[in-house]
Design goal:
With 433 residues, this protein is of the alpha+beta class. It has 8 helices and 28 strands. The chain is globular. One of its GO terms (cellular component) is membrane.
Amino acid sequence: MVHSAYDAVELVAGVPGRIEAVASHAGKLLVASSDSEGFLRGSECSLRIYSSPASSPEGGGEIRRDGPYALERHEQRFWRRPPLAMEVSASRDLLLSLSEWVALHRLPGLEAVAVVSNKTKGANVFAWDDRRGLLAVGRQKRLTVFRLDSGREFVEVKEFGVPDILKSMAWCGDNICLGIRREYMIINSMTGALTEVFSSGRIAPPLVVPLPTGELLLGKDNIGVFVDQNGKLIQDGRIIWSDTPASVVIHRPYAVARLPRHVEIRSLRAPNALVQTVVLRDVQKLVQTGNCILAALSNSVCGLLPVPIGAQIVQLTASGEFEEALALCKLLPPEDSNLRSAKESSIHIRYGHFLFDSGNYEEAMEQFSDSHVDITYVLSLYPSIVLPQTHIIGEHDKLLDMPELATESSDVTERWNHTHYSSMNQMINLHWR
């Protein structure tokens, strides 16, 4: 199931020094980079903001593909050390970053809001719950939970000891999934109760990836395992990558992994087939934004911009990937309900033809039934079947033109179809024995 789900577009090139982190806000790119001298000293890092020349207030804050982004603002020595993590809260217009400690800045002006120096100095990982304004910070063998109070300061809520150094973590409801050296654990953010999940891989450090559904994808070398909020395995839930990913982001309906030689895109639907491979070497970071994925290389930023769902459906249908095409139909916007119905009907008909030509007659009947195609169309596929007198078709029931078959079917005909598809199956079985 290989098709083009994303277009790789270079957004920014020639960033001085080395890119350490990247994010987006209101359609602009925020790039943290170690300047040449600062990079040699291992300290000091600038923040550069890039905007698209074609951007407008009506753009909806999305990353655009029309032309390279230009430098709009440069804040030198924004951090004393390169940030280990940087994240934007679009709903609150805030920039969270972890350098020497966790700092909070207001966007777009970059005014300093809060610095949490006491309990976060020397921290190496954080997880932000944007809906509830909760921040979990991992420092050595300590986990501290803060609450953003009135959008101005972080108030400590809880602090817990954990068995080993924290490497990765993510919120999952009231729980936090922890990647601790070589194993995964679930901790309750209110009580501190710990539950072991399973060990991580032998090669790669633990990798915790949250899903929009509240579930998690946990890395085990080149395998991603799906678990629920309590760490329970989801049946038949795993992704097998072609190599061990350094990071994974979720951009429905796909999981996107940063591998040593390329970026790999796989379906979130079982059996999690390969969708696309994007050859981008030296990718340092993958970041999911509202409408795309940002891939930060050493000195440039590429955007993986999704191909429109309708175009992907056409690709999949043409290549015979009918199940995947039908799954993508469900992602069409609600306002396109008529288009969705027409596409689904058309795909069911093509799928039915494919199954019929393959000799899978019962399965073909199911697809024709789901398409709501007139029963007379199905009967026309079996010219050698002699129907009983009660099944003789009148002039008013004769086959309509194909475009109308996918969209126009009277209530009476639909009820008739539903009643007679089962008897059609029986006749077909007798015919092909």
